[in-house]
């Protein structure tokens, strides 16, 4: 095939379950030249008068060139075509908390923004997942006798850590000089960022987007803030979709205000997006904050539709979602909710134009570690 391009943006998405691939060859910013494109089972080859560029597919991914179909040109976006594809299955998601922390380990809690130690050298004898936020109501529905857990909240003991959907609960009695009051904010001493809040005089809730938990012998990992927030939220969504078959979520602040509506489309995508230019391959902005690997790498992705709910936008839709028991709320600090909205907007702007919206929703395509 031949198209007129000056600098071609290549976007490839492989759906593992559907065994299909979408290939988008973008339009040049300005000018143009003849470009011949060949699709082989393991690579994309682009030839121009100035040279030849080959983009190799990652191991385990194969295309079927003879299955090319749905060829169309979309103005402002480029050439689209669909093919049959095969990709190895991705590993099952593992709790990101348990990847780096196991019971019996001595660990420390750090402020993710500045690296300040919040809890130092805490030996955790039990690391336990919490039930869903509505577990008490479910007990009342299913039990034929009075609820034995009524008015008995779950509080961790001194060497416990309870893991919720978007937070950790730890016993803070031994780390504080004076007994704290319930329902007060926990602020980082160095950068003054809100890390969590006290649930009771002995229990502190730390939000997963604000702290990093590391074994004490390890060092503080310096991860860019936007990359960290994206990965935490993406991991939470994948785990909840897998465990509870829940696909719609609200992102709300600790004050109960809804900031974002999320609707998970799929988490089985493999995305590859280099930018080719006269014999070289380099990263495209969608990957710059997400990966440290080379530009030829592919990444597991979760695709999520979202709607902002700030400044009274989508007020009726947000209200209807809040009243729907199939919609799961995720609570974060209000400042992080606004930060996440900016991250989603920037991510959306880096996608091919035709993929940025679906009906009235916008698309977020995030790197998802497994």
Describe it for me?
By secondary structure, this protein is of the alpha+beta class. The chain has two domains: 2-89 and 242-367, no CATH class; 96-215, no CATH class. The protein contains six helices and 25 strands. It has helices spanning 96-100, 135-142, 225-244, 285-288, 315-322, 334-349, and strands spanning 2-5, 10-15, 20-26, 33-40, 43-48, 51-56, 61-74, 78-87, 105-111, 117-124, 126-129, 160-163, 167-171, 185-187, 194-198, 203-207, 211-215, 248-252, 258-272, 274-277, 280-283, 299-308, 327-331, 357-358, 361-367. Strands 2, 3, 7, 8, 18, 19, 22, 23, 24 and 25 form a ten-stranded mixed beta sheet that branches. A six-stranded mixed beta sheet has the order 11-12-13-16-15-14, with no helix packed on it. A four-stranded antiparallel beta sheet has the order 1-4-5-6, with no helix packed on it. The chain is elongated, with a radius of gyration of 24 Å.
Our Rg estimate from Cα atoms comes to 24 Å
Largest sheet: 10 strands, mixed
How many β strands by DSSP?
25
Strand residue content:
35-45%
> Number of helix segments?
6
Coarse structural class: alpha+beta
DSSP helix fraction? 10-25%
Cα distance, first to last residue? 37 Å
Structural domain count? 2
Overall shape: it is elongated
Q: What are the low-pLDDT stretches, counting only 5+ consecutive residues below 50?
A: 1-6, 275-296
- Can you give the mean pLDDT? 83
Descriptors for this entry?
370 residues; alpha+beta; 2 domains; ten-stranded mixed β-sheet; six-stranded mixed β-sheet; 25 strands; 16% helix; 43% strand; disordered N terminus
């Amino acid at each position: 095939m031949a198209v007129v391009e000056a600098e071609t943006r290549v976007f490839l998405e492989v759906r593992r379950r559907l065994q299909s691939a979408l290939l988008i060859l973008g339009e040049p910013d300005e000018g143009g030249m003849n470009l011949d494109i060949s699709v082989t089972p393991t690579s994309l080859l682009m030839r121009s008068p100035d040279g030849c560029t080959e983009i190799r597919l990652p191991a385990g991914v194969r295309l079927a060139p003879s299955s090319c179909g749905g060829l169309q040109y979309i103005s402002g976006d480029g050439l689209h075509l669909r093919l049959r594809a095969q990709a190895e299955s991705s590993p099952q998601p593992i709790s990101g908390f348990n990847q780096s922390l196991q019971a019996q380990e001595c660990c420390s809690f750090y402020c993710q923004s500045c690296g300040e130690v919040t809890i130092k050298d805490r030996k955790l004898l039990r690391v336990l997942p919490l039930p869903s936020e509505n577990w008490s109501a479910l007990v009342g529905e299913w039990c034929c006798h009075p609820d034995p857990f009524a008015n008995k909240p779950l509080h961790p003991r001194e060497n416990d850590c309870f893991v919720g959907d978007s937070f950790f609960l730890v016993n803070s009695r031994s780390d504080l000089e004076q007994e704290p009051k319930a329902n007060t904010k926990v602020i980082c001493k160095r950068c003054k960022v809100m890390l969590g809040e006290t649930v009771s005089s002995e229990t502190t809730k730390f939000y997963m987007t604000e702290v990093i938990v590391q074994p004490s012998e390890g060092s503080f990992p310096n991860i860019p803030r936007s990359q960290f927030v994206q990965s935490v939220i993406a991991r939470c969504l994948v785990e909840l979709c897998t465990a509870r078959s829940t696909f719609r979520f609200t992102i709300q602040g600790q004050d109960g205000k809804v900031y974002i509506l999320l609707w998970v489309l799929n988490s089985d995508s493999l995305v590859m997006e280099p930018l080719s230019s006269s014999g070289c391959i380099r990263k495209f902005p969608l990957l710059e904050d997400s990966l440290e690997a080379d530009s030829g790498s592919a990444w597991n992705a979760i695709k999520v539709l979202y709607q902002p709910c700030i400044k009274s936008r989508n007020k009726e839709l947000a209200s209807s979602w809040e009243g729907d028991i199939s919609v799961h709320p995720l609570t974060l600090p209000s400042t992080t909710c606004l930060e996440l909205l900016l991250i989603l907007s920037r991510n959306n702007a880096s996608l091919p134009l035709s993929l940025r919206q679906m009906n009235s929703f916008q698309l977020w395509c995030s790197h998802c570690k497994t």
